[in-house]
Amino acid sequence: MLSDVNLRSLFNPESIAVVGASRSGHKLGNVILSNLVSAGYRGKLMPVNPAGGEILGLAASPSVRELPHPPDLGIIVLPREQVLTAMEELADAHVSAICVITAGFRETGRDGFELEMEMADLARRRNVTLLGPNSLGLVNTAIGLNATIAQAKPSRGSIAFFSQSGALCSAILDWADGEGIGFSKFVSLGNKAGVSEADVLESLGNDPETKVIIGYLESVDDGQKFLSKARAVTEKKPVIMIKAGTTPSGARATSSHTGSMAGSVVASTAAFKQAGIIQVESLESLFDLARAFAEQPLPTGPNLTVVTNSGGPGILAADACEDADLHLARPTMETLEVLSKALPPFAAIYNPIDIIGDADADRYRVTLEAVAKDEMSNAILVLLTPTASAQIKETAQAVIDIAADCDKPVFASFMGDSRIGPGRDMLLDAGIPCYGYPEPAIRAISAMLAHHRWKNRPYPVEVCFRRDQGRASRAIKRAKRLGLSELPFNEAMEIATAYELPVPEIRLVRTSDQAVRAAKKLGYPVALKIVSPHISSRSDVDGVALNLATPRDVRDAWLDITSRAQRKRPDAYITGCLVQTMGPVKARAVVVRFTQDPQFGPLVSFSLAGPSAEVLGDISYRLAPLTLQDVQDIVREIKSFPLLRGVRGEEPVNLAAIEDILLSMSQMATDFPEIREMVLDPVLVDSEEAMVTDIRLTVG
Amino acid sequence: MLSDVNLRSLFNPESIAVVGASRSGHKLGNVILSNLVSAGYRGKLMPVNPAGGEILGLAASPSVRELPHPPDLGIIVLPREQVLTAMEELADAHVSAICVITAGFRETGRDGFELEMEMADLARRRNVTLLGPNSLGLVNTAIGLNATIAQAKPSRGSIAFFSQSGALCSAILDWADGEGIGFSKFVSLGNKAGVSEADVLESLGNDPETKVIIGYLESVDDGQKFLSKARAVTEKKPVIMIKAGTTPSGARATSSHTGSMAGSVVASTAAFKQAGIIQVESLESLFDLARAFAEQPLPTGPNLTVVTNSGGPGILAADACEDADLHLARPTMETLEVLSKALPPFAAIYNPIDIIGDADADRYRVTLEAVAKDEMSNAILVLLTPTASAQIKETAQAVIDIAADCDKPVFASFMGDSRIGPGRDMLLDAGIPCYGYPEPAIRAISAMLAHHRWKNRPYPVEVCFRRDQGRASRAIKRAKRLGLSELPFNEAMEIATAYELPVPEIRLVRTSDQAVRAAKKLGYPVALKIVSPHISSRSDVDGVALNLATPRDVRDAWLDITSRAQRKRPDAYITGCLVQTMGPVKARAVVVRFTQDPQFGPLVSFSLAGPSAEVLGDISYRLAPLTLQDVQDIVREIKSFPLLRGVRGEEPVNLAAIEDILLSMSQMATDFPEIREMVLDPVLVDSEEAMVTDIRLTVG
Q1: What is the pLDDT of residues A321-332, one digit of tens each?
Q2: Are the beta carbons of A388 and B258 separated by less than 8 Å?
Q3: Which of A25, B39, B405, B700 is placed for a possible disulfide with B146 were both Cys, Cβ 3.0 to 4.6 Å?
Q4: Closest approach of chain A CAs to the CA of B69, in angstroms?
Q5: What angle do CA B645, B650, B652 make, to 5 degrees?
Q6: Which residues of A touch B354 (CB under 8 A)?
Q7: What domains can you pick out in chain B, each with its CATH number?
Q8: pTM of the model
Q9: What's the CA gap between B347 and B339, in Å, rounded?
């Protein structure tokens, strides 16, 4: 694993060798050198080209061995076949980091993949930090380092960007250039043979030049490492990411693109959530949010004030608030008093504050001054349409003045094009995000609020549960010894008991008399379930009877179940039946499950039993180990949660009992990576207690 | 009601009087006259100003009475108090249409509202078409008519826009100007005292200059009229609308803005759907779609081909397809053969076709030529990132050339800013929509496909059901005579029977002996339900027993139910019990309901019984009368539909039986506007039959 120190030579090299530097303007070996020169890099730049001579005014060495000075960073822009040798030579020259621009490795098939493995291996052996291959390069504006093959020239700013797609980087640089957005760092990860997204994230987290981190990912290599690094970074600064390949079509496209597996979407979404990463759906949102976070303070609450000279956009903003979990702030009496004096009689002084179409800049100013002071308001959005009376530049100036004196975030949406252009430019120059429509502003404020809440959440408590790990371990070993992948019910129950899951009392009986005696001992009502080594699914033979309340019921059920099983499966040996205490009677049924995700490790899920999960997909996910906050969130996140809280005057179910089960499951998933899947279905829960009435457990 | 003819004088006047024309550049009475002059209106322009003289080179009449010529259209830009008199005078001068720019009416409170009512009344009496008040004006670029107070100058095009928000119009004109988008017509509806959204929609539908209609609405005045007019228009051309006030916050803001009621959101959404209107969520989508519809042919199927020089955006496009109900087209063998020959070995020839980062314009061209011929592909999206090798203008030209020879819609997303700018401008000039990101292109293609399907849907069949309307009517009258608003169960059942709804057979019995005899006659199993004039909710007294299979069960249940009712409600007179045949046993329970929406009339809804509807809001809506297509859609639209179709090998329920019930309910809702609400809850349905086992019916 890389330490942060290693990335220093990548981002802050004192000398650079460009291996494959070229005289020909078309070639990437020329583009990258020319970018390095023109960005004003002040360290030592050493082109390497077999012909020697001079390139772009720099003396070129004929080979790496003949470099005048050991380089900190080596950049390789050579044909694929020559890359490995060049790496070897750079390592001999005591390079600390290598960036391989060359493409044609893992993404092209088996040969490329094997070559890439050799490169990764070499980097590890020689203790060299490897970025790429198939990287567009990297940028550190603080030292004038532009080691990319992109055409655009990134300007300096406080946003750091990292991307798994190289060509996308070129679009982003061009876009940022036009929008006047600057970067602190810019990293194209390429195939991630060495430096991973987790390494870069950690490094950018420690970078004092970086206020906001944005990223584009198609795959995550080591989910647990990524999660823990990211969690530390988001304590310090916002991380906004777009994950591509989140649908089946997208995932297929991903694997044909990078040769990497897209991995489970629910697992990566859960990881992002648990790491406090803001996940967005589109590139547009990525940039909208980047600008907002870079330039405005975080709102400390959900109450937004909208000031507008046009009713329509005000309504659209109000609609968008509802979707974004923001509220329209209720103005204080003081504010209302000021506004009702200052505004014309037909203005709407309640929020959205509609200062109407004939508003000039002064009317905006007086309104904004009142709102800026209003302690009920946590954020301000100024809407302007270019009416005949609108004073666009003067209004922009009023917004700028008010924002300068105000600790709330201030956003604008000046709607239109050339007429509002001068105002928009003034706002952007002054660091006030100005969008073409109200909706992106509201999405940005909402994301910033979420980040504020994340940073101020209670300290995450990881819970370690009392359990008898040895007893569970022995049960798993017994099953493995027998070559079983799915554990027998009684062994699964044994493990559940070892982890103190609330399970019903159970007796295995072989006659109806024994069944009646067992029922008496356990207490009525009971359930009766067929047991046979040859019948794996009881429902196939209708082998379960529930809620048996009397000895008579038990005898009838015994006859029913066993004779039906013999009729339907004459070949099966019937061991007997289980007698089992019933769970809570008027209960809700929920399902708790964990599986092992190949990239992110143990993934816990929660849902109601039945169609809400199976048909409507109302299931929530978190990665284990779960914190106390996680279990509260996973339970409350499902849309069906009101059924657990109680609808129409019902009592709420015992949520703490469910949360305890989730914590135990998290513990078990962490203790036993060899458990491939464990499903508690159903867990019955009422206002008093929860009981796990069936378990399926598979080892792998 | 206005006929289309009346709107002619509004859009195509031969002469115009501007009442309130002003010499002072700041005043709206000057702005509008100057707009009329500079847009090159060739009809007769007659300013009216008490001072007479000349304004902007035109001779001004001191009053309407002194106009040299009777005007077709009168435009009023006067203080509020003078508007009514001016209208009267214009009517005397035989004006056909009046547009009132002046604001300060309904939107400002009671006085304004009453004044507006007088204006509406005057217009009706004098047979004058009234646009506004509080309108920004209107535009007809075909005759150089710009009768607005907006600052921007709309250019000619094929998009018509109408809006309930005036200030929004000014933003839109400015935006369109910058984007090079032209309009055929442009109408600011204002307070809609005379001309309504339905009138304008009909007129734009008949306008040969208009290819696409876009609109912004906050309220719909006569929902049924709007629905039928809109349905006729969408047969001819696409109508794209944004409805503001679709959330509680937005609705509150709406009513304070225009003084109009936002109305039920589900009803307006249903109306838009049934009228074939494309409803969008944001202004941005409104314009994105307007451009797409105006410039490209409709796709005839869901299969999209994506060509890209960068894997990342290709994956994002694939992700977006899934959300938008589009598929990635599977290339034909011919296409694959061409591509595998023409493209470098590392290119991805399956869709998204990734021609990789070093692609030049020729590689785009050869790929697009193959795709344009591919009969499995219904639409093409070209993505470009400005890599070092990208030939941006040449690639734009290739796209333009291919699109010219291709009957499929072609879209582009050139990503970046100044570097891709020249290419983007070429594409836009050539009528190829080019977006900054892949997602808006995909949303546009998806909306166009929906419109294609709408235009090619089966001819809508309205079904008239056999029923005994008189019998139902008598039952309603009896209830009304008794002053009941909720009908007794037996009367509700009577009405259901008159409309041939499948209801269980029922007997009212007074003793347990009678109950057993009734059960024998009806056939076991039966249900038993308490009947008492003093008990309205049976569940309060646990007054229902289901699935009684034997005489013994019936007697036990009788004792249970009646004694419990007496114990819980000692004051209640117990009439007896209903004995009722059970519905299908292993059935799904669904709910069918209709209510009367104040703006849209009878609104039918459908859902499963239970939490999917109550907690998760999985309910679908349509306005009555329902067509055959509507009932099929309303049933299939709920997310829980798989449960009706059958999951895990279950048999599907009898959907036709549910559809028949929905058609009967639609008929009843149309026949009896005095039924305020009718709820069939539950309707039990299995693979054989459906049965309505409980009804609640309220008259108003």
Answers
A1: 988 999 999 999
A2: no
A3: B39
A4: 30
A5: 30
A6: 256-257
A7: 4-292 (3.40.50.261), 303-429 (3.40.50.261), 460-503+583-700 (3.30.470.20), 505-582 (3.30.1490.20)
A8: 0.90
A9: 9
